[in-house]
Specification:
single chain; alpha/beta; about 50% helix; about 15% strand
């Protein structure tokens, strides 16, 4: 039996990267999926590739009316919502605090944080009526530790998502609805190209180029992949996690664990060698 048999799931930001791979895995695990994104052609192509189990609804997640319409479509077609994966994201302004533009700050918070609020706001009543459901929010290791993102705003927004997740989990858990987050580490997607300012289509082609740099960041010596996050989302969406609530599931290959062992040992050996080489 597939792990998501009979479940109805909404995935935002599903036209590429983590969202697209999560949609593919959810369908393979038996779910009926409604995917959302701003790029109509790409979203329709994903839905066509996944077949009858998948629908695409063009959605700007920063627009509350469009988020409400996404949820209404899902309920009208399937009668319920068992999982919402608030995955949509994007780059945020870079540079020091003294240079953050007000409009760039507002746009980033709308995409990274306000969209999560809207998604939970409009799905929560459906799940509360069902007395069941799983809300999953996409956090980041940058929300745990400063210096892991090129953007102060991105890091702050993701920290807010992680804590908001805990707060809402305390409320909705009493109604049988679980609320958790996933904090990816360095995942090889087109996001790095988008941060560099490349157009969306060109940015998607940079995922392979990012793998080399990402492989050296954490103890597990490879880049994170969209499938790593998708499999974590399957766990949180499935009945395997019915006693998991208010948790942030870090998927980072050990990045947040501390300093990597081998470089640390090399530095210690170099220090010892310097001590022994010093006269007297």
């Amino acid at each position: 039996m597939a792990r998501l048999d009979g479940k109805v799931c909404i995935i935002t930001g599903a036209t590429s990267g983590i969202g697209r791979r999560t949609a593919e895995v959810f369908v393979a695990e038996g779910a009926r999926v409604v995917i959302a994104g701003r790029r109509a052609a790409e979203g329709q192509a994903v839905a066509a590739a996944l077949g009858a189990a998948c629908d695409f609804v063009r959605t700007d997640v920063t627009d509350e009316a469009q988020v409400r319409a996404l949820v209404d479509f899902t309920v009208a077609k399937h009668g319920r919502v068992d999982c919402l994966f608030n995955n949509a994201g994007g780059p945020a302004p870079q540079g020091g605090i003294e240079s953050i533009p007000a409009d760039g700050f507002d746009a980033a918070i709308a995409t990274l944080l306000r969209s999560v609020v809207f998604g939970m706001k409009h799905v929560a009543p459906v799940m509360v009526r069902q007395r069941s459901g799983s809300l999953i929010n996409n956090g980041s290791v940058a929300g745990h530790l400063a210096g892991l993102s090129s953007s102060l705003v991105y890091s702050a927004a993701k920290a807010a998502v992680i804590h908001l997740t805990r707060c809402v989990a305390m409320q909705l858990g009493e109604q049988g609805v679980r609320v958790n987050s996933i904090s990816p580490g360095g995942i090889a997607t087109g996001m790095f190209g988008k941060v560099a300012g490349l157009p969306a289509e060109q940015a998607e082609r940079t995922a392979e180029l990012a793998k080399g740099a990402l492989a050296a960041m954490q103890p597990i010596p490879r880049a994170g992949l969209p499938d790593d996050v998708a499999q974590a989302a399957v766990f949180l969406a499935s009945d395997d996690s019915t006693f998991v609530n208010g948790h942030d599931l870090v998927v980072d290959g050990g990045l947040l664990g501390g300093q990597r062992w081998t470089p640390q040992q090399e530095r210690l050996q170099a220090m010892r060698a310097a001590f022994l080489a010093r006269p007297g």
